[in-house]
């Protein structure tokens, strides 16, 4: 009886410890989805940045015989810990490098988890503009309130070990990755990754699959150029910054190109004709895009940002 009682006590203690550990992880559904021989990804839920405990973006994994390379690290350290937990189910190899698509909060607040494990952080040139801005600290303070306890006083901005300002190749464990420097497209600095042996493109936030993209202060002219360049490649699959992966990358890219081109054409004409934004927006037929998720939340703001940016282009 004493042996049984001791066993029962140990079992309860173990369950209690596991439950306590789980309390430190966000209660979200996160699945590591296999894309190809070397590539997996996790897909965040559609929604605003502070919804779903911050799990609204994607992150990808490249598994090799010599170690793991990550592409982005999600929007909170707690999500990154859960991501790491999922990763350990498919490989026991260490995380050697993290390639950052761009420095927006929903992709980078998990960086500290992997930096503390010794991973090299590689970011696109231009990201330093965000890191050195007042907005970076202001947003972090805001997220500490909106995403507590997952973003807290221990959450910090992690600077990269190096910046990339052009295309380059990285090979680990016989797997070659092509880093594609996109410059100032969606953000102050963007990059994508082509996993060459698999033909898989990790494109970052140049694509929001299945929804209206977030334009923000993007340079839509460069954004379009980069998308059109990538559409020429021979790809087997593409993992976007938001939304599900696609086995038909060219079709997905085409949809985003059409949306951004429409914004530039309609708002460009309004700027040229000196039509006030509110009048121009109300007169525009949004019928081809109004059915897309996040249209109500994002489209008007996107149109306004493009309107302002085209005014600036016209002054140059």
From TrEMBL:
* PANTHER family per the UniProt record, alphabetical: BETA LACTAMASE, METALLO-BETA-LACTAMASE DOMAIN-CONTAINING
The answer to whether the entry has keyword Cell membrane is no
Keyword annotations of the record: Signal
Q: What is this protein called?
A: MBL fold metallo-hydrolase
What residue range is the signal peptide?
Answer: 1-21
> By its UniProt entry, which SMART domains does this protein fall under?
Lactamase_B (SM00849)
**Nucleus found in the keyword field:** no
Metallo-beta-lactamase domain location: 56-242
Q: What InterPro entries is this protein classified in?
A: Metallo-B-lactamas, NDM-1-like, RibonucZ/Hydroxyglut_hydro
């Amino acid at each position: 009886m004493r042996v049984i009682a001791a066993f029962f006590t140990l079992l309860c203690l173990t369950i209690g410890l596991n439950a306590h550990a789980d309390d430190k992880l966000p209660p979200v559904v996160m699945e590591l989805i296999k894309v190809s021989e070397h590539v997996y990804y996790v897909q965040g839920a559609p929604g605003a940045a502070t919804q779903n405990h911050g799990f609204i973006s994607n992150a990808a994994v490249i598994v090799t015989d010599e170690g793991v390379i990550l592409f982005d690290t999600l929007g909170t350290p707690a999500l990154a810990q859960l991501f790491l937990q999922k990763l350990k189910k498919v490989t026991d190899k260490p995380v050697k490098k993290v390639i950052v698509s761009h420095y927006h909060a929903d992709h980078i607040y998990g960086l500290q988890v992997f930096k503390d494990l010794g991973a090299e952080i590689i970011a696109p040139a231009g990201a330093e503009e965000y890191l050195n801005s007042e907005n970076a600290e202001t947003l972090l303070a805001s997220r500490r309130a909106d995403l507590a306890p997952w973003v807290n006083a221990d959450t910090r901005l992690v600077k990269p070990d190096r910046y990339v300002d052009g295309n380059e190749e990285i090979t680990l464990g016989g797997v070659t990755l092509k880093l594609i420097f996109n410059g100032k497209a969606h953000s102050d600095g963007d990059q994508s990754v082509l996993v060459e042996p698999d033909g898989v493109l990790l494109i970052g936030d140049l694509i929001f699959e299945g929804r209206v993209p977030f334009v923000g202060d993007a340079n839509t002219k460069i954004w379009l150029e980069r998308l059109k360049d990538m559409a020429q490649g021979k790809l087997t699959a593409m993992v976007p910054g938001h939304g599900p992966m696609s086995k038909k990358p060219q079709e997905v890219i085409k949809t985003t190109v059409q949306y951004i081109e429409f914004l530039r054409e309609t708002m460009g004409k309004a700027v040229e004709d000196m039509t006030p934004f509110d009048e121009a927006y109300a007169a525009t037929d949004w019928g081809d895009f109004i059915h897309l998720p996040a249209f109500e939340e994002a489209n008007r703001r996107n149109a306004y940002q493009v309107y302002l940016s085209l005014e600036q282009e016209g002054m140059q």
